[in-house]
Amino acid sequence: MALPFFLRKGLTVANHAVNGRSSKSFVDEGRLDAILSVIRPGDLLLVQFAHNDEKVEDPIRYTEPWTTFQDCLRLYISGARAKGARPVLVTPVERRRFDVDGNALPTHGEYPAAMRALAVEERVALLDVEALSLALWQSLGVEATKTYFNWTDTEQDNTHFNPPGAIAVARLVARESVRTRVFARRDVVRLHEDIPTSWITWPPA
To answer: For position 153, what pLDDT does the model report?
Structure first.
């Protein structure tokens, strides 16, 4: 939701992300087909999954990192390429989890590694947001990271972001997209500016 704040005027972001979907269930619901029906040559398709692929107890969503997860991701890659668009794999952003010594812990198992390997195999650009976000949480520490997630007096959500967290992660994506040449430097703006959290408005439930 916050990525458009870091892109120059004239670049359009179509956010097709839907809460609770995995790489598999997104396809099964026809959502990839819907994207491929409107995507155009030269467009970018940023693909980020894993959180819900990890739900081993749910056969509708679960994928195995080195087999079905990669197989599903190949559908996005081949579908985008068939339309003349450029697929970009984005490793999952990390949850907020620390050990007793204050070290930020990875929470996605083998999924990021499987995505990295697939990016090499398919020669697809990769934005390694898992590694970048883990490093950011480590630098911020146990208490400061609470201000990026939905932590309130009644809720302790270590997965979903509030507006400051959404902006911080979008900044990571924008910065990494320049480094990896997914976006040209001229296309990315405000990398070193504060973004008002009031710019984010959540869609109705």
So the answer is: 82
Question: What is this structure's pTM?
Answer: 0.94
Which run of H or of E encompasses 86?
Answer: strand 86-90
44-47/149-151 β-pairing: unpaired
- Show me where the domains of the chain are located: 3-199
Q: Which CATH class is domain 3-199?
A: alpha beta
| Count of C-beta atoms within a 10 Å radius of residue 128 | 18
The CA distance from 180 to 201, in Å, is 29
Helix (H) or strand (E) holding 122: helix 111-122
Pairwise CA distance, residues 58 & 176, whole Å: 33
**Amino acid 197: pLDDT:** 87
CA 183 to chain centre: 16
Distance CA 45, CA 131 (A): 21
